[in-house]
Amino acid sequence: MEDNLQNELEKLQKENDALRAKVDRANEKAQRKQERTKKTLSWTWKLFTGASLNKNFNNWFTEFHTERKVSPDTSANLLTSLVQRFVRVRLLSVIL
Question: Where in the chain are the domains?
Answer without folding.
Answer: 1-49, 50-96
